[in-house]
Amino acid sequence: MTSNQLKSSRISGFHKKSPQERLDLVAAFAGLDEATVAHLANMGNLDPHLADHLIENVVGTMNIPVGIATNMRIDGEDMLIPMATEESSVVAAVCNAARQCYDVGGFVTSSSGTLMIAQIQLVDSPDPHNARIKILERRDEIKAVCDECDPILVKLGGGFRDVEVRIIDTLGGPMVITHLIVDTRDAMGANAVNTMAEKLAPSIAAWTGGRTYLRILSNLADRRLARARATWTCEAIAASGMAGEAVRDGIVSAYQFAAADPYRAATHNKGIMNGITAVVLATGNDTRAIEAGCHAYAAKDGHYGSLTRWEVTPEGHLAGSIEVPMAVGLIGGATKLHPTARANLKILGVTTADRLARVIAAVGLAQNFSALKALATTGIQKGHMALHAQNIAMMAGAVGEEIDRVARVLVERGTVRVDVAEAELKLIRG
Ligand code: MEV
After folding, report:
1. Belongs to which family (predicted)?
2. What's the 399 CA to ligand 1 centre distance in angstroms?
3. CA 74, CA 341: separation in Å to the nearest integer?
4. In a domain, 78, yes or no
5. pTM for the full model?
6. How would residue 206 be classed by pLDDT, with cut points 50, 70 and 90?
């Protein structure tokens, strides 16, 4: 084969090959050395056969550290929370926030239930208002079609709950959008509601005379909201050199900033998602679905704002609360198949998707508390840099005990840079 042929990305039948055969082709394409190929071929604690069936064209796996957030008390129950993240400080932030509200009871959570929404798009309807009413008239038939799609879900207490029809103005004229509201219980529910929407669409077209196109769930799962709240006393949140009242007021002001300014809100919510996504990933749930839902919900009032609220209680304590769409499941997909997700769910000890959703909301709130506290006091870099320094030390080639030694020097000097780490490593190694 010439080098030009090797460089072609047109590889017919790639999906039919084994992971090792694919890896050999990729190695030839990208000029990977033996050590890199061996590294990719080592799939760690994920069975290669399982990996090969979870997604397409598998050549390897990517390990992300799982850390445990301690100190979490949620609805009176002490819990250990597994978090999968590559970002330093995220797990520590949750531990710290939880420690500071543990003695006053920790987190209280609730939810709006486990309802998912599927959308059916109808276009070319000459009389959209008439069409809307015609669809609503068929509620009983719609319920029957939906419930027939998933008798097991119905047996478990879930299934069709309601139908709503909206008329929206679009660049292509009015569209009639049918929402199927379905209780998916312990499933995330995408498969269930997508099947229902696809099954029902031809009937909607027939009843109205329009044409149906998209039939898919909405990730703006605003019938599946998870809520959490917690209170921090000023005494508990006093920081080195700062009275608790000043810390409290700084956090409230940081929230007010995020609520008013989308530039700040994006970063504020990113911090919340640091916590949320880490638990969603650790439990094998769909991180993108959750992120899409949360960010869309943050814009529900017509402008992008904060997912949390921070206020001062009549007693002068700091009260934080969060409300977010949280479409997570315990059954189906990677949640059930991935052994690490299963182990993490065991550590969490949750038995319903609703409980998992509420725990995740509490983690998001804890994360936000720590980020805002750091920002309103010492600044984020001090804490970040201590952990970041270890990454930099490793990047400079430090191993074993060298990592902590080099990192300590970087932090002491206030220069967390690879070149400084390399120089320090040279010194240590003589
Ligand atoms: C960094 O990953 C997250 C923060 O930027 C969040 C925030 O600014 O609120 C610290």
Report:
1. Belongs to the HMG-CoA reductase family.
2. 29
3. 21
4. yes
5. 0.92
6. very high
